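As a warm-up, study this chain.
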Amino acid sequence: MSCFLKRDRNCPRKCSPPNGANQSDDNTKLKIAIVGFGNFGQFLAKTFVSHGHRVLAYSRSDYTHVAQELGVSYFNNIDDLCEQHPEVILLCTSILSTEKVLKSLPVQRLKRSTLFVDILSVKEFPRNLFLHHLPHNFDILCTHPMFGPESGKNGWNGLAFVYDKVRIGIDESRTSRCDRFLDIFASEGCRMVEMSCAEHDWHAAGSQFITHTTGRFLEKLELERTPIDTKGYETLLSLVENTAGDSFDLYYGLFLYNINAMEQIERFDRAFESVKKQLFDRLHGFYRQQVFKHEEKLP
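Now compare it with the structure written out below.
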């Protein structure tokens, strides 16, 4: 049974030497193909390699030299990558490009039991894409690491990793493969959270999407640092920096592909109007008080 299934943070497997130095359990290592080798793909690849897994990569841009430095086998042709028969295909694409990339994959060149994994910030969207476009005998695991290259640069301990085993074959080799992939994150100390894609999107709309919306809203105010900044104001500036550092495409994807996002936008708008009304109602009451006091003093 894997360390992940037992949730044993002290399991010796997580202490195995990096880069596959201990060859005694080579049969536990995976061949993982990363499709989309940008910042996030490279960020994950470093840890995969450190656990001794064989990592392959493909992207529209040429990352040959970066891959070589990371110990990753880079392919300029997606057909060539698929013919290596990776056990896991990990899509590290943007939300907006996921469907196009998935449809372009020559899945006929893969083993019929290949495990497909995504890491998008929305979950119902890739789940439905996978179920619709992938052959029924392919396994599907939808995940969302609730961290990235910046927030996870000092390690993943305590950071949330959400996953949903959408479709995993019942035979031991396939369940074991899925657990070994998840075990990478568990052994790094991630807080493993299993929940349905629908539940994830409901929670994310009220947390991640609202966070991005607030950051974008504050960015439009063009806030600046002052000599008398409070801790609260510094927190707001930090939020602006974090959200502005992400592309608008990411924010748009969070809105477009999460059915709960529109409701949050409407709630955000109603909340702002409610606060304005509360302010103006009190101001109106204050002026009425002043007017009546003045009238009482008149002869």
